[in-house]
């Protein structure tokens, strides 16, 4: 009856933008994985011609090690010029708005902006106001799409009988992924919970109520809440641990000893409940809190592979945003 | 003052129960005659409005607008805001006190109401209930009332302290005016920018719970009951922009018990849900926030069964640069004066089946009564000549760029409207004509 205005306003964004995993079809995911695989096989010199002379800006309002470095190295490996602007050493400190910062970067020739920002939705603002392709490198508690893509690639590489250079609605059939920890504040959890079920996986979210409210179930089909970590682990082919985000707790009190007791992934627990499960962590890890050192360094761990997959997946995303020959032609 | 004739229209006057063809004569700023069609045709009027096929109704009354003057005239002025009101069919608006400085003094109130501000329609104000709207010390209610205050409110800043709210209700009751409360327990809403629920979780935004609204409403109702018992006064609580079923239920029960509670609902709360935020559209950000469908339905039910007394827009203009920000940083509020009638007719009349008379009561007679404007909100002979003439069947799409308001922050840009204002007459003067 009032449907015409119930529908949210649709904005348009530059082709090649990646703001949310919801923007990606399974075919898009497949193309990104395929390009990532091909890039790894290409000779370095050839790869460096793909985006030669192109300008990419990294705009970081939050600190980052993995995401920033891998985007930067990915851009450079494709021959692009990069510039890093952070909130600390720029006019952002003087109160310049996100819009004006974006317009300034565009005026300086940036053809693509990689944005990390503490406010959920900030990449949408930047993309709308500049018209430049924007890659979301993590926005507040919302999403971290490139992380979910590199996580998919990691799973497909490490789980037996899978193909990491393509994706279908069945790529992760029969795979149960347990995501444990501070789901409420985690953009990694949201991106994975939205993406993995579309590739056939079952996602079990695990954590105490204050960090994992029941409303998380509404993230979509294929998502389940299991409070008992041991019970969840027994069903897991993949277990993804998350850091407690002290910076986003906003007054929430947490009994850390109790948390460790119930939710830490340690060697004993892993051996008893899921000896073959793949162990993942988007980083940064707090060893001894959500994960023990022996598990992080152990044979089940794919944590370093996740990091290195960041390079190839983010290279593919940059090509998708900027390659003038057409993204699909890279795959030929 | 020259005569205005409005001929051949369908007169809908909820106050007198009239809904039939009548001709209307406005003289000296008053309704001079309301007669059978054709009976006024021999009068020589300076202006004649042919209202064939149109509805003629009492001018709309909005008890909750933000006109931003003094202090933030880049967003709106009294002149531009009231021009938007006229275009929307409103003839009376009540300005909230959250200007800069806060309207908490007689001098401030007089400045605001002065003819020099250039109000196009009748402007009233509700000054602050506490100095600077800081929630600590009451303003001078008696002096402000004498200078024209229709009631008192700290608007966007709810009066949280029980003792202060109690004191305010008692002082207002002695003057026979309402305390208008923005019901939000701000202890529960720190860092929140939208409604709590699945949409907020998916968007990664902290959400305001329905309890944040209902707790204050329940507390205020408890205070009313206590004051009636201990002080033998009958305080009037007016709850602003009600948005949740739970708070509505508390009001429904309070009314059943005979307490003097009234409340308003905003068009956006009966039209949209939090899904309208979409890709972090800051033009769908306001406080109270757009709620879930169940709460929208509760507001619709409250409008139908009389729990909601009136429609108010909470017209809250903001400059483009303020809304083009990160969702959490962007200010709350949307413009609403030019879309209220079109949405009310589309959603409440066409979709929900409420009668035109009921909707006009919600938008004129009832809000006028809430702030005790006895000679407005009616077309009875002798009333002030505030009239809106509109085409109830016109379907059109609102374009924000055409708005008379200085600001264009609306989620209804391009939205379909039912019913279009043809003319607005304020105190006998035609102040808007399509």
Automatic annotation (TrEMBL), chain A:
A matching Pfam family: OTCace_N
Any one GO CC term of the record: cytosol
Keywords, alphabetical: Pyrimidine biosynthesis, Transferase
All copies of domain Aspartate/ornithine carbamoyltransferase Asp/Orn-binding, residue ranges: 173-319
Binding-site positions, carbamoyl phosphate: 66-67, 116, 144, 147, 283-284
Domain Aspartate/ornithine carbamoyltransferase carbamoyl-P binding: 18-155
Keyword Nucleotidyltransferase: no
Family according to the record: Belongs to the aspartate/ornithine carbamoyltransferase superfamily. ATCase family.
Biological source species: Edaphobacter paludis
Positions contributing to L-aspartate binding: 94, 187, 243
Function: Catalyzes the condensation of carbamoyl phosphate and aspartate to form carbamoyl aspartate and inorganic phosphate, the committed step in the de novo pyrimidine nucleotide biosynthesis pathway.
Catalytic activity reported: carbamoyl phosphate + L-aspartate = N-carbamoyl-L-aspartate + phosphate + H(+)
Protein name, entry field: Aspartate carbamoyltransferase
GO term, biological process aspect, one: amino acid metabolic process
Molecular functions per Gene Ontology: amino acid binding; aspartate carbamoyltransferase activity
Complex formation: Heterododecamer (2C3:3R2) of six catalytic PyrB chains organized as two trimers (C3), and six regulatory PyrI chains organized as three dimers (R2).
SUPFAM superfamilies (alphabetical): Aspartate/ornithine carbamoyltransferase
TrEMBL record, chain B:
Enzyme class: hydrolase
A GO molecular function held by the record: zinc ion binding
Signal peptide: none
Domain Dihydroorotase catalytic per the UniProt entry, residue ranges: 55-243
GO biological process: 'de novo' UMP biosynthetic process; purine nucleobase catabolic process
EC id: 3.5.2.3
Cited function: Catalyzes the reversible cyclization of carbamoyl aspartate to dihydroorotate.
Entry-linked HAMAP family: PyrC_classI_B
Protein name: Dihydroorotase
């Amino acid at each position: 009856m009032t449907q015409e205005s119930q529908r949210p306003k649709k904005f348009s964004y530059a082709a090649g933008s990646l703001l949310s995993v919801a923007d990606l079809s399974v075919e898009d995911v497949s193309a990104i994985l395929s390009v990532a695989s091909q890039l790894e096989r290409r000779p370095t010199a050839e790869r460096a011609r793909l985006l030669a002379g192109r300008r990419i800006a990294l705009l970081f309002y939050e600190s980052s090690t993995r995401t920033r470095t891998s985007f930067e190295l990915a851009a450079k490996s494709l021959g692009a010029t990069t510039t890093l602007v952070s909130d600390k050493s720029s006019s952002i400190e003087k109160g310049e708005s996100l819009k004006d910062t974006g317009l300034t970067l565009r005026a300086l020739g940036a053809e693509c902006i990689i944005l990390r920002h503490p406010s959920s939705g900030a990449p949408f603002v930047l993309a709308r106001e500049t018209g430049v392709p924007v890659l979301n490198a993590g926005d507040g508690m919302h999403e971290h799409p490139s992380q979910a893509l590199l996580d998919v690639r990691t799973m497909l590489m490490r789980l037996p009988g899978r193909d990491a250079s393509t994706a279908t609605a069945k790529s992760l059939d029969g795979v149960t992924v347990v995501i444990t920890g501070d789901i409420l504040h985690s953009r990694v959890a949201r991106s994975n919970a939205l993406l993995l079920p579309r590739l056939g996986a079952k996602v079990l979210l695990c954590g105490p109520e204050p960090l994992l409210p029941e409303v998380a179930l509404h993230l979509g089909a294929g998502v389940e809440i299991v409070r008992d970590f041991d019970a969840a682990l027994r069903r897991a082919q993949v277990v993804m641990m998350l850091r407690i985000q002290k910076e986003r707790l906003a007054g929430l009190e947490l009994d850390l000893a109790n948390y460790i007791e119930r939710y830490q992934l340690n060697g004993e627990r892993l051996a008893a409940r899921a000896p073959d499960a793949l162990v993942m962590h988007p980083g940064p890890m707090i060893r001894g809190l959500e994960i023990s050192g022996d598990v992080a360094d152990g044979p089940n761990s794919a944590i370093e592979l996740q990091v290195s997959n960041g390079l190839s997946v983010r290279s593919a995303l940059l090509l998708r945003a900027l390659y003038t020959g057409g993204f699909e032609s890279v795959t030929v | 003052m020259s005569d205005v004739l409005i001929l051949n229209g369908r007169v809908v006057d909820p106050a007198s129960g009239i809904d039939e063809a009548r001709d209307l004569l406005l003289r000296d700023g008053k309704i001079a005659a309301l007669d059978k069609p054709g009976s006024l045709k021999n009068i020589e009027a300076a202006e004649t409005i042919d209202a064939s096929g149109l509805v003629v109704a009492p001018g709309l009354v909005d008890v909750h607008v933000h006109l931003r003057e003094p202090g933030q005239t880049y967003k709106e002025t009294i002149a531009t805001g009231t021009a938007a009101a006229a275009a929307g069919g409103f003839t009376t608006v009540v300005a909230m006190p959250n200007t800069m400085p806060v309207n908490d003094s007689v001098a401030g109130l007089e400045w605001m109401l002065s003819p020099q501000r250039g109000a196009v329609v009748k402007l009233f104000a509700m000054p602050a209930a506490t100095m600077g709207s800081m929630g600590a010390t009451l303003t001078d209610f008696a002096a402000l009332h004498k200078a024209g205050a229709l009631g008192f409110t700290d608007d966007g800043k709810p009066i949280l302290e029980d003792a202060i709210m109690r004191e305010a209700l008692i002082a207002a009751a002695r003057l026979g005016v309402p305390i208008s409360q923005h019901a939000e327990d701000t202890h529960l809403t720190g860092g929140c920018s939208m409604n709590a629920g699945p949409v907020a979780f998916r968007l990664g935004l902290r959400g305001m719970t329905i309890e944040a609204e209902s707790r204050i409403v329940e507390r205020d109702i408890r205070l009313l009951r206590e004051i009636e018992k201990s002080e033998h006064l009958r305080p009037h609580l007016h709850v602003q922009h009600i948005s949740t079923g739970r708070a509505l239920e508390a009001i429904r029960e309070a009314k059943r018990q005979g307490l003097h509670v009234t409340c308003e609902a905003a068009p956006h709360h009966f039209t949209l849900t939090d899904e309208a935020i979409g890709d972090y559209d800051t033009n769908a950000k306001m406080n109270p926030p757009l709620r879930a469908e169940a709460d929208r339905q509760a507001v619709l039910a409250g409008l139908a069964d009389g729990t909601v007394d009136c429609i108010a827009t909470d017209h809250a203009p903001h400059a483009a640069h303020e809304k083009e920000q990160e969702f959490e940083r962007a200010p709350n509020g949307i413009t609403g004066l030019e879309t209220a009638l079109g949405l009310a007719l589309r959603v409440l009349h066409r979709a929900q089946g409420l009668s035109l008379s009921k909707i006009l009561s919600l938008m004129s007679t009832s809000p006028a009564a809430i702030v005790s404007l006895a000679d407005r909100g009616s077309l009875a002979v002798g009333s002030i000549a505030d009239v809106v003439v509109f085409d109830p069947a016109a379907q059109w799409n609102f374009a924000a760029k055409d708005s008379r308001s200085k600001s264009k922050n609306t989620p209804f840009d391009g939205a379909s409207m039912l019913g279009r204002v043809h003319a607005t007459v304020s105190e006998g003067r035609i102040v808007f004509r399509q």
